Structures are given as C-alpha cells and as structure tokens.
Model the fold of this input.
Amino acid sequence: MSNALVLVLNCGSSSLKFAIINHNTGETHLSGLAECFNLPEARIKWETGNKKQKEQLSNRAAHTQALDFIVNTILSKEIELASQLSAIGHRIVHGGEYFTKSVIITDEVIEGIKKAIPFAPLHNPAHLIGIAEARKFLPKLSNKNVAVFDTAFHQTMPEWAYLYALPYELYQNHRIRRYGAHGTSHFYVSQQAAKFLNKPLEKLNAISCHLGNGGSVTAIRNGKSIDTSMGLTPLEGLVMGTRSGDLDPAIIFYLHHVLSMNIDEIDQMLSKKSGLLGLTEVTSDCRYVEDHYDNFKKPEARRAVDVFCHRLAKYIGAYTSLMEGRLDLVIFTGGIGENSSLIRKLTLNKLSLLGFEVDPARNLLARFGQSGAITTDHSRLAMVIPTNEEKVIAQDTAQLTRALQNM
Done:
C-alpha cells in the first residue's frame, strides 16, 4: 500500500466529496461527503471499512471548514492512511479548450481553470477553493495536486460535432462551442467495455450513457469521443433531475417577453426546476418515478419516465449513425443507468429496429454495483458497467506525480 494512496477531492458548489483510493487496485479506503454548505445544517459523513460516522460542521460551514475537518479530525485519527498519501487529485468540471488531459496543478493551470469559469460558474470557483485549501492543509503535497477535467475526453470531437450554427466569430473570439461533461466516467466505462470484449480500446465503437441527476450520452468511435449530448454547459442534452436538456431557444424569449420572467428566473427554472422535477412537479428522484410508473394515481411518474426514455433513445439512435457501420455495444452507467432496470428496458425497447432485445432476468440482475449484459444472446449488446471516476482520477494523479518525481 506504500505510496499507493491518493486523496481524491470533488468540490461542488454546496458540497465536497472525498475519498482515499489505492491507485493500483482501485480499492477505496475512506470515502465521505460534506454537504449543505453555507447553511445552518452543514454536516459531514464518512466511512472507513464498514464503519460509518457523521458530524455537524460549524454553522454555515463551507469548503475551508470541510477540508480542515477532513485533515485535522478524520486524517489525524487515520494515521496510517494519512502517512501513505502520495498526492491529491481534483475533479474539475470544465477545462474549456485549455486542457486536453490531466495536468499537475501550477499557477498557469489555475489561470486556465479561472478562464473557464463562465462555462461552469457554479463548479469551477468551488474547484479553485478546493485546490487552494488542499495546498494549505496538506503543504507536503502542495506540488502534487493534479487536475482531472470532465471535458478533456471530449476534446477529440471534430469541428462538425462541437460547433454551433452561430456566427463563427463567437467561437473564434469567445470560444462558444460544445464541450461536453462526464468525460472521466465515459472514458472509464469505455476502457472496461474494451476489456470485456477483449479488444483494444482504439478499436472500440460504443455509445456510453451516463445517467444520474445529471446525464449525458457519448458516441465513442475507435476509443475516442466524437460527439456528446452536453454542450457549452451541462444544461444541453438529456432530460435530467432538475435540468431541462434540449429545448427550442425561442422558449426563452417567450418566457421573457410574454410571461415577463427575467433572465435569472429563467436560468433558475431551466437548471433547478425542470427535468424530472418539472415534469412530475413532485421530485427529481428517479426512484420515485420508477416506483410509481404503473400507478394510475400518479400519472406524473409515467409522464416523466416516458419523456426521459424518449429523449435518451433518440440520442442513442442518432449516435448509431456515427459508428461507420459497426456498433459494439451500448453502455449504461451512473446512478440511474446502473440501477434503473425500467429506464433501460423502456429505452432499448424503442430501439428494436437496431437489433436490441432486453433479457428481463439479466436486466433485473444488473443493479447495485453488478455489471453485465442486459440483452439476449442473439441481440445487439447492451450492458451495465458501474462507473468509477475516482479510480481514474487516482490513477491519473499517481501517474503524473510519479513522472514529476522521475524528472
């Protein structure tokens, strides 16, 4: 285990996920979540082995207090784990066009993350706080912080996939284009799919569906992302927990001109009050709509699921046309993709023309961390592959910091 442990930090706008991972084995030795930042109920929970613990943070605590607690309370008691830490990996949502791969964090890298703030205004500032606090609280590892970008995997998209049909000067001067997200997850499951099929990654043609509170679909040809459903920001694409996904841009003008909504209200509605929450007017939780799908007293559940699956099936069908005649498999991952047998069944049933036939027994078994095919033996292959973004972050972090040591 010596020198094999990496602290992985994922700083969100109101939460901080953390884990200590063995980059060789992928084993998680500690994991936790600090949440409800800037609220009276700010708290932190964590797990080591089979032991779960939780504590209240100070009133309206945020990233600084959470990192302080992680280092000076949790790690001070987990002395063996703390002594084995070799580096820190940070998940960064948006790297713009500045970063095509993971990098050691320097002052120049920090400036690049700052430049991408307009494309991820809630996430990138939080990441920068996490970087600064990690350097402060773990000074011995200050030059061993690594940024792993959600957008990096999609930097292989060709121009015809990433450009919007807007005046070209908006791209030239302001870099308004499609960037995608969830790249770390799509990359990981594509690697696992290549191993499952026993073929080199560079020969894999797959469609990866990362479905959670946020969701995206990626077309992977010859192991590289060539198109993805999220765009300039994570608002484009699929129906999500609270995000609308694709819509007619003129709706925004209607909301403003006719319904007198201001820009901030529209922004909040599309990002925080739409998706499954908007369709049900009850919840953004997919488990609710799945549990009540056949309940005639809960018509909002069927409505939300049907719209969700319709949009997802359209993307899979469209991306099939990009595979140059050979699609090896469709992958389902993320919290919904890994656990909702109903979503998978309804989506694939819409794609029978492409040769998909769901095996009911296999589909029900592939849940709660279990991977495997969910289609029949004579069907085109679709399978569940649990994602492990933290493992990718840990591996990239270890590889880069080792290279730095060997220079």
DSSP finds 16 helices and 14 strands in the chain. Residues 19 and 31 are 4 Å apart (CA to CA). The radius of gyration is 21 Å. The first strand starts at residue 5 and ends at 11.
